[in-house]
Design a protein that fits this description.
The chain is an alpha+beta fold and 369 residues long. It contains 10 helices and 19 strands. It has 2 domains: 159 residues, Thermophilic metalloprotease (M29) (Thermophilic metalloprotease-like); 201 residues, no CATH class.
């Protein structure tokens, strides 16, 4: 029997996140999720007077496609899916996590997949030309990552995804944005971190349920060559199947000149995929009050209250420093006291300490914390 919470989630995605209108079309990309969730999305799209298109996919099939792929086969696959993406007004991508290590043994092909498939289909077509939202579906693997029982995790998932007042979040972000858009110099201090960069003229983009569920971040982008210093991330992050730990970068004039992790060789291979992978494409403040602890799942971890993420790779076109890469790797540092604390300074003024915003224009981002 379908979970009634699936129907509530589907309505949120269709009516709020991508705001489908009568006569529009929506591509539903359903990866390793129950048929009932896909049915709920189809029903919600029809109820909006729109036209659903459905791609049912599986992580094992994805691996099979990537493992023996050539450049020519990836380019053909990308051509077909790029054409389909161009035909729709909106995209809903929902993925269950079946095996986070599925691509871990084929890192070279995974990097090629990112460059020749994900870049044209998603970076160059979906992101700038559709209204889109992406999310995960609760699975036993995700529950294990979060150190929760399956039912406990499902309750947590629907709470942080569908019970958040995204309209209130959006209003607080609109207030914060007026101040944030005036900022030039940023200084971040935390254990193993002393980082300086400029965001002068780079607008902040509020994220309150329109592109991700759960949501709760407001992001900008550093001037490409302005980043100097060191950052140490305190959240594990899986990329192409490998779970990276203890990531630390040293920057000089925007470029990552030193990179360390539990696997120094592998992390350098990722950063050497193309020139842009060693520059930063996003700087964001996480502020979802219901997401407090990392679970090695980017769509949750980057929203953690009191966190930042500082992202090697491609910049988004709505906040663009010109950096282009097949990589976009959201790496997270939590600054609440139990994770070591931290301070953020804007133009020399302390604006957030130990994860709590103290600047008057930013306090609304604390959401009662």
């Amino acid at each position: 029997m379908a979970d009634q919470r699936e129907q509530k989630l589907a309505k949120l995605l269709v009516e709020y996140s991508v705001a489908l209108q009568k006569g529009e079309s929506c591509l539903i990309n359903a990866v390793d999720i129950p048929i009932s969730m896909t049915e709920a999305l189809i029903t919600a799209v029809y109820e909006a007077g729109a036209y659903p298109l459905v791609n049912v996919w599986n992580q094992r099939l994805e691996r099979a496609m990537v493992q023996n792929a050539s450049e020519a086969s990836l380019e053909k696959w990308a051509d077909v899916d790029t054409y389909r993406m161009k035909q729709v007004d909106a995209f809903i991508g929902i993925r269950g996590i079946a095996n986070v290590r599925e691509l871990s043994s084929i890192p070279e092909k995974s990097n090629l997949y990112g460059k020749l498939y994900n870049t044209p289909v998603h970076m160059k077509t979906r992101l700038p030309h559709t209204r889109w939202v992406v999310l995960r579906y609760p699975t036993e693997v995700m529950a294990m990552q979060a150190d929760k029982g399956t039912l406990e995790f499902e309750d947590f998932f629907y709470q942080v995804c569908t019970e958040v007042d995204y309209q209130k979040m959006a209003e607080a972000m609109d207030v914060a944005k007026k101040y944030l858009d005036t900022v030039d110099k940023v200084h971040i201090k935390a254990p193993g971190t002393d980082l300086h960069f400029s965001i002068k003229g780079m607008a902040f983009i509020p994220c309150a349920g329109k592109m991700n569920i759960p949501d709760g971040e407001i992001y900008s982008c550093p001037i490409k060559d302005s980043v100097n210093g060191t950052i140490t991330y305190n959240c594990d992050s899986t990329f192409h199947g490998h779970q990276f730990k203890d990531i630390r970068f040293v920057f000089k004039d925007g470029k990552i000149v030193e990179a360390y992790s539990d696997d120094n060789t592998l992390i350098k291979e990722i950063l050497d995929v193309d020139e842009g992978a060693r520059y930063i494409g996003e700087f964001a403040l996480g502020c979802n009050p219901g997401v407090l602890h990392p679970m090695d799942n980017t769509l949750f971890d980057e929203k953690i209250a009191g966190s930042i993420h500082f992202t090697p790779g491609n910049a988004y076109e709505d906040c663009d420093n010109g950096n282009r890469s097949s990589v976009h790797w959201d790496l997270v540092q939590i600054q609440r006291p139990e994770y070591g604390g931290g301070e953020i300074y804007f133009d020399g003024e302390l604006v957030r300490k130990d994860g709590i915003f103290i600047h008057p224009e930013l306090r609304g981002l604390n959401f009662g914390s």
